[in-house]
Amino acid sequence: xxxxKIGKLIAKLRKEKGLTQKNVADALGVLNKTVSKWECGLGxxxxxxxxxxxxILGVDISQMMEGEITPNKPDSGNIxxxxxxxxxxxxxxxxxxxxxxxxxxxxxxxxxxxxxQNKDFTISVEEVDxxxxxxxxxxxxxxxxxxxxxxxxxxxxxxxxxxxxQSPNFRIPMISGGKLYLYxxxxxxxxxxxLFGE
Length: 198
What we know:
Elements: H1 3-16, H2 21-28, H3 32-39, H4 50-57, H5 61-66, E1 83-86, E2 93-96, E3 102-104, E4 107-109, E5 123-128, E6 131-136, E7 146-153, E8 156-161, E9 170-173, E10 179-184, E11 188-192
Helix pairs in contact: 2-3
């Protein structure tokens, strides 16, 4: 570990948050001269402080330990590059419209890759009022179910969370030409680009 680099980063992040060395020290239960020592590069925080320190400073722990924060590239707003993430620990669903560093429950999460469509799985679309009514034959068992569906079009993402033992059928707003994504807890992420006409 480069203690000087890490110390400079701690000082920078602390100042950005509007915190004093004493604020950080009190939150960690250490002396403020300990925080000063870290910021001067005369030592690094003990391993037991890293998780709390990253929470206080609001940064990813692994990047803080490297001594530099790598910013994501600016989002160009291209919805065609949408990426979905599911936390393996808590099940949170996260979305980005380009490359991003996503973490949840203290772990870095990789985006879901598409899998080929299961031939046993059927899907049908019906127009009902101002919505599409989507019917599927997907099982909705406790350990095998559709976790979420997403409908992506132009500048919009409609995300619906589904749960085990509920119906696998759902409604989405009628916006033609979009792409439907389904995430199965066992088989992964599948997309259906040609279900809706232009």
